Structures are given as structure tokens and as C-alpha cells.
Amino acid sequence: MAFLELxxxxxxxxxxxxxxxFSLAVREGEFVSFLGGSGCGKTTTLRMIAGFETPTEGxxxxxxxxxxxxxxxxxxxxxxxxxxxxxxxMTVRRNxxxxxxxxxxxxxxxxxRIEEMLALIHMEELGDRYPHQxxxxxxxxxxxxxxxxxxxxxxxxxEPLSALDAKIRAMLRTEIRAIQQKTGIxxxxxxxxxxxxxxLSDRIVVMQSGRIEQVGTPFxxxxxxATPFVASFIGNLNILEAAVVDPALGLLSVEGQEVxxxxxxxxxxxxxxxLRPEMLSLNDGVPGANSLNGTLSTIVFLGSxxxxxxxxxSRELSLDRFNAPHLALPDVGSSVTISFPREACxxxxxxxxxxxxxxxxxxxx
Amino acid sequence: MSARRGWAWLWLFLGFLxxxxxxxGTFIFSLHGKRGVLSFxxxxxxxxxxxxxxxxxxxxxxxxxxxxxGLCLIIPTVIWIHLRAPWAKPVVETFSLLPFVIPPIVxxxxxxxxxxxxxxxxxxxxxxxxxxxxxxxxxYIYRSVDAGLRAIDLRGxxxxxxxxxxxxxxxxxxxxxxxxxxxxxxAAFLTFSIVIGELTLAVMLAWPAFGPYMALVGRDLAYEPxxxxxxxxxxxxxxxxxxxxxxxxxxxxxxxxxx
Lengths: 365, 259
Fold this sequence. Notes:
The complex is a heterodimer of chains A (about 375) and B (about 260).
Chain A: E1 4-13, E2 16-26, E3 31-35, H1 42-50, E4 57-62, E5 65-66, E6 77-80, H2 92-102, H3 107-120, H4 136-149, E7 154-158, H5 166-183, E8 186-191, H6 194-200, E9 203-208, E10 211-216, H7 218-223, H8 228-233, E11 238-246, E12 251-254, E13 257-260, E14 270-275, E15 281-282, E16 290-301, E17 305-312, E18 315-322, E19 335-340, E20 346-349, H9 352-364
Parallel strand pairs in A: 3-8, 3-9, 6-7, 7-8
Antiparallel strand pairs in A: 1-2, 1-4, 4-5, 9-10, 11-12, 11-14, 12-13, 14-20, 15-19, 16-17, 16-19, 17-18
Chain B: H1 2-30, H2 41-48, H3 50-83, H4 89-101, H5 104-115, H6 126-150, H7 154-163, H8 168-176, H9 181-197, H10 200-204, H11 210-220, H12 223-253
Helix pairs in contact in B: 1-12, 2-12, 3-6, 3-9, 4-6, 6-9, 7-8, 9-12, 11-12
């Protein structure tokens, strides 16, 4: 049996199933992220593991024990909240000591553990500060130390970085991963930020409407999305409508230009062709690769990358390339040729629900 | 700009006079306890009256009991509403306004009718008086506790404490109540000032309380009521000052970080 196991977990509020048939096995020491948009059920699932919500159906086991009906304070689960939830009337030291006192540790042990935790989060100097005397990043680190101090079996983090600014977020992300690897604690991390999930996790659970869309390593999720939703949710995606010319050869027609996929295509008629912006390159007439002709319409500077907007017929594609000091780009309005390998073609069926999602994704891109 | 500021000061000054002149008048009058000279004779006589000490002590005891019973009753209720039954908030808020709408005289007649015959013969018990005071102070306690709970992230804090293994006792006494000290203090002081001056319930239930004593003195004597008025005024101001002092000190150490 896995260390943390959820079996057919369902949560209904009234008639509405917020989490529907959620099953997952997490190995000891694994870092798993729940990723999805708001209302996908990721936080509710986390709260069921913590014990703040009771599953309508299904069971939750932690290290072999069924905890489904157990009170939150009996589960041995540490939790870090989005808004830190540090006790405002206590200093960092006393916040960390709280759980240890509840667990009736000896005073000398508590003292040693507090210092150990402060060292772990690099806040030895700030132990006597009250929460309101610290920055958001420091408060969240203190909250992490407080949760880890009692040596919980599972650490749960509920969007812990979303209230922080970008730079602190990136720094703390690295720190969380380092602390997790150092302590080897089984961790569930809820986030709506794909970059966070991709960079932190051993495995990612992509969720939508209370259901699991895909479970896999960041590499699998990004490069081999199992469903159109995962493909469109993770990373940026160019979505084109294409006509199937020859299913066996994988031959398609996009805006009157020929494109060839890596293998045979299941569907016929019109299908959806998805391309990641970083798979496209400019004016590279590589033999054996696909190429499309279009017009350069926008150049957006994003720091380390430059995103080019290229109009192909009625559609606009994004193309990412790395920034460089001597980067020479064509003028806006000039004709360009883009090329991409056959393997870059993600082909899926054109369905109505996918189209509505695509339009949302299109806006996000 | 300066003209506007001048007007503002003028209105402030007039407002100050409006409140201060009667107070000053009462104070000067209270100093005329001895013929021909200004003295604190009236105050001496007030303090020398055994009834003053007796009634004040009685009301003090009742006030403390009311504060304890009221807080014990209302704090868990409001916490429960905040965490589990937010839908009940408007209902309880409406209830909390009833003591303002129903005159105390109606309340006390209801209490007497209800509790003067078996199975509940409580008319001669102090319990009934305290129960009545709890009703009268309910709006103030409720509002203070509610405001205190709104100011903290109650759900987050209780969940954090639970996930650290704490039971409800620890959560209440180590986490929730310490973070509501200011609002609990203001609830306590407001209740205190209501009970100390309360007249109707004490008279109708025939208790030797401070309110009826003040009324009696006011009817029979001249300078002593003025002295009593000034004393109770100072007491109230002292309490308000204490609330202010406590909120500033506690806000510095504990309550500033609730965001």
C-alpha cells in the first residue's frame, strides 16, 4: 500500500460534486502537486486529506491507517496556508513551539527543535519577532517551520506562494523543494500556477471539474498531455483548425498549406492541431520539417524570451525564441517562414467543449 | 483653507462647551456641600454613607457575574456562528437588537410573570437579576465579540491549530481568546457600566443596587447626587481610557499582524 492513498474520493456539496472519483497513491517522500484552475476541486481534496472536510464517499489512508473519519488534530498532517495563519499573539519561536507543546514534548527538546527549525528556514535572527513584524515571505517560512516542527507524516501546502510577489515566490519555491528533499517528507502541494507545479513536483495531478485529467511527471505532463485539456492548460499552446488530407500519412492542410504529423491520424474531416510556441522556429528551412508562410505581426519582449506573433491566414501563432544581445529580427509586417518538426504536432478531435476552452486559452496566450 | 480650519475649530469648541458646561456646572455645584466655601464635603458624605458602599459592592458583584455569564454564553455562540453557521448571522444580529427595542420595564414584568410561580420560582434569586442584565448587555457583548472575531482570520487560525494537534480547549484559550483581548475588554467594560447604573430591573426585582441608590439620593438630597454624577462620570471615563490604553498596547504586540 502506498504511503498516502485516496480511493474513489467524492465530495458533494448538495447535489454538486466538487470532487468526483479521486483516486491517487502517493509514495513516501514523494512531492505531488494538484494543479488546476479555480473550482477544479484541488483545494477541497487537500482539505479532505487534512480532515477539514469529510469525503461523501471513498477512503483516505495515511501510512496504512484509514483516516477518513478522523479529526484533523489526530491525523498527523502538517498544513501551510495561503495566508500563513500564524498566531498573531505569538512570536515565531512560540508559533513553532505550539504544536510541540500540544504534543507534550519536554521543554529542552522543544527548545532544541525550535532552533533546528529556525536554522532550516534560515531565520535564526528573527525568532523573537511577531508575525506583523515580518514580510510575507518570512511569515510563510515561519509557517512552514511550524508545520514541520511536529514531524507530521504528510505536509500539505495550500497555494502557499500565491500571496507573495514574483521574486520572493521563485526564491521560496526553491527553498520549499530543498527543505522537502532534506526532510524527505511526503508532500502535497496545491497550486494553480503551472510553473510552480512543473518546477517543484515529482508528479503532477492535473484536475478539472473535480476529476483527475492526468497524473504524471512534469516531463510527461508537458510533452505527452493525455487530454486536450491538459495540453491547453499546461504551457502556452497555438491552436489551429486543420483539414485531414490523408489520415494514413498524417497529412493535414492548415490555411491551405500542407503540414505533416509524425504518425497516422485517427480522425477525418476537420481536426485540431496544437503547437507549442517554443517548438516553432523562424526561417529555418529544415529538410523533413514542416513549414508555414505568414506575416510577422507583433514582437513582445518577455525578458529571457522574445515572443513573435505570426499571422497565418486567419490565425495568429506565437513563436518563442531565446533573447540574445545581438538578436536580429525581421520587421513587423514582413513575410516570414516558420518551421517545426513533425513530432511537434499535437493532433486532437475538434469538439465543442474543447473549442470553448481553446478560446479561453487563446485569450490567456 | 485657513478659514475652513477656523470654522472647524469653532464648531469643535462649541461642541466642547455643549458637553462641558453642564458637567462643569454639576462639578461646581457638588463642591458647595459646605455653606459658603468650596469643598469636597459632599464627596466625603457620599463615601461615608454605608449604603453607598453596600449598594456599589452589590452592583459590582452583579456586574462581574453578568460579564462572566454573558461572555461564557456569547463567545462560543458567536464563534460557532462564524465557523459553522454563517447563515444564522442576520438572525442573531436581529435578536441582539431586541434589548434596544423592548423597554426594560416590559422585560422585567415578563421575567416576574414567568418566574414567580412553580416550576421556576426565581424571583427572589440573584440569578434572575443576572439573567436580566445579560439580556440588557447582550447587544454590546455580541457586537464587541463579533467585531473581535472579524478582525482575526478565525477559520485559518483554528485550522492551523487543529493541524498542529490542538483540541478545542487549547484553540480557544491559547489562540482565539488571546487574539480578541481588546474586544473582550471592551465588552466587559460596557457591560460593567450598564449594570452599575441600571435602575429598572433592580427596582422591580427589589435589590439594593447602586442604580436605585443613586435615584434615591437624587430625590432626597441636593449636593450628593451631583457628587455621585461626577464620580460615575469619572468611573466611565476611566474605563474608556483603560480600553484605549489596552488596545494601543495590545495592538502593538499582538493584533497588528492580522491581515
